[in-house]
Amino acid sequence: MKKIGTLMFFCLMLFTLPSLSHASAGLHLYLNGVSLSPSAETQMVKSTTMIPIRVVVEELGFQVDWDKKTRTVTIHNDKKTIQLVVSQKWATVDGKKVNLDVAPMIKSDTTLVPLRFVGETMGLVVNWENETKSVYLFTSDAGSEVTEPKPPVTKPEPDPGGTTGSSGDGSKGEDLSEIQTMSFEDNRLVIGVSKGNVKPTQQKLTGPDRIVVDIPNAKFSDDFSKTQNFSPNGQSEYIVQDHPVVDKIRYSQYSDSPATIRVVIDMKQSQNFSVSTTKDPNTVVVDLNGGGSTDPDTGTVPPHSGKYVVVIDAGHGAKDPGAISINKRNEKDFNLAQALKVAELFKNDPDVEVVLTRTDDTFLELKERVAFAKQHQANLFVSIHANSINKSSISGTETYYSRDDESKKFAQVMHNNLVKGTGLPDRGVRKQSLHVTRETNMPACLLEVGYLTNQTDESALYQEDFQYRVAQSIKDGIKQYLGLQS
Amino acid sequence: MLKKTILVLGTLLLTVAIAAGCGQKTEEPKPGDQTQVEQPAEQTLKIQSFYTDDQIMNLVPKDTEIKFSDVKDKYLAALKSLQKTDDEKLIALWDKSEFLSAALKDDGALTVDVKIPEDAHLGASGEDLALQALLKTSFQFDEVKTVDILVDGKSVDSLMGHVELEHPFNRN
């Protein structure tokens, strides 16, 4: 039973089926409890359910436009507009870019789009039930009015759990948020709730180390409860396998009046974390991506405060010196000095908060830099580097981007300013598949300020006044891109 | 007299042994091989090697010739061709790095072990092009299905800190 709970949890969390690759015989779709007409084309791709756009139009009732020339699908209702492009792993939502796990695709003349992304973006609550291979979609108004969504008329498999489900007879009509999903992935616990106005509280306890998050005015949804194996004391748990810091996650209806859900993350060691909420989809997020050690003074709560957040990433560090200059100076030291000067110039800026991936000679893997930017919900990402090639005559400034979205425009704006700042030959804006500019999900560029293998560039790069000029040009570029006065 | 003969004979044997050692790496004779150690003939193969232009913009293929005696050494010989070029318009992206080994398993998995001294670290585009040069050079051999690149024998995230490595890279 516990196993089922665990398994269920696991599946909910990724919306996942480890391995269904072929068309999904047995994949069921329900909207507000009503079975949708089966579609042969609906299928799982890399654990993402893909549905034909026909289903989006006919069954979900959104408007869809298909531009054959640009292979762009536009899905909209009166509130939201999504644009997806076939084979592109990103989409725009009301003009803002977001990354996709699986790109839209064309299979035998049918365009398939990721169901969860489309559903949740358009305001549906999307639940996956692994045992029955079913996707339950709820319109959000149905979610708040109907406490007990109608079970599907036909159940392909009997419920092996046997739990009759404590259908919420007493709690009907109350104005409670329902906990619908929980997932733990990328060091983030994401709790899907039916309403967007939850106000979680958090505590960090020691001996043993644990994080306690209380969600007031909340209860578990019936569908969620059915997937859980609550012990007699009303607690269910999920053991996180082989995680460096998390042991297990426990949750229960901690109190009935006021109705409070308590989620406890049992930790193997103390760890910084942040708790935040999102709307559309409505979630409570407990994010553990906050540096290894615990330091009560430097919480990892992003420094929001109504400002734009710009992550400045000094490339390389510590064991990775980057390139070595002709005078045997390290690239990593230039990158750090330059990044610190950018941060200095933005100090007390009313509009922009600069956050540095590193402030000293430490090493971060490329993916950690990306995770850092995402965790801080950065609006922009700038990585600072210095160049190197085994030909000493090559000199100049280059700016890189990887994604043909806003990154391209951002890189161009940054480059125009940077070239003025360096005064070195303009070697252009270039597209290259670099990890930090490709995997981030905000406009991102990487600056190769000059060549450490060129005498002129090198002697300039390590001068204070040059670095201040370049820092100012980076600041100018950021402000220009954000449409702010510099 | 006898002593002298032994000495001469001994010197002769030694010379032969050294000569053999200096020549091509001889394989351990496998069971079933003929008793006489076959000196594998040196083979010459025309391949494509990849460099970049002096703008460090594109990967530029160039016909080169590699020499090897044992077919097993083909991949290492091919990769070593990336370390220099006679074409002055081109830049050899691997000139300061070292290819320690390149071994192909029966299933088509090629494991390449490289050493990248600090002064061989390239910038963003240099690294990306160097990686592409290595992969394209390796995948031109049909039998190579995957390429796993190790640095000093270790599986690392990135060669030079801009581009991530896949372990292994699959043929596209």
Report what the structure shows:
The complex is a heterodimer of chains A (486) and B (172). By secondary structure, chain A is of the alpha+beta class. Chain A has helices at 2-14, 53-58, 115-121, 140-145, 222-226, 331-346, 366-375, 406-422, 435-439, 455-461, 464-482, and strands spanning 28-31, 34-35, 43-45, 48-52, 63-67, 72-76, 81-85, 90-93, 96-99, 105-107, 110-114, 124-129, 134-139, 177-185, 188-193, 201-205, 210-216, 218-220, 235-239, 246-256, 259-267, 274-278, 283-287, 308-314, 352-356, 380-387, 397-401, 426-431, 444-451. In chain A, the strands form six sheets. Chain A has a six-stranded mixed sheet with strand order 25-24-26-29-27-28, sandwiched between helices. A five-stranded antiparallel sheet of chain A has the order 5-6-7-8-9. Mean pLDDT of chain A is 80; it is low at 1-25, 142-173 and 291-304. With 172 residues, chain B is of the alpha+beta class. Helices cover 26% and strands 26% of the residues of chain B. In chain B, strands 4-5-6-7 form a four-stranded mixed sheet, covered by helices on one side. Chain B has a three-stranded antiparallel sheet with strand order 2-1-3. In chain B, strand 4 and strand 5 (109-115) form a beta hairpin. The radius of gyration of chain B is 20 Å and the shape is globular. Chains A and B meet through strand 26 and strand 29 of A and helix 3 of B.
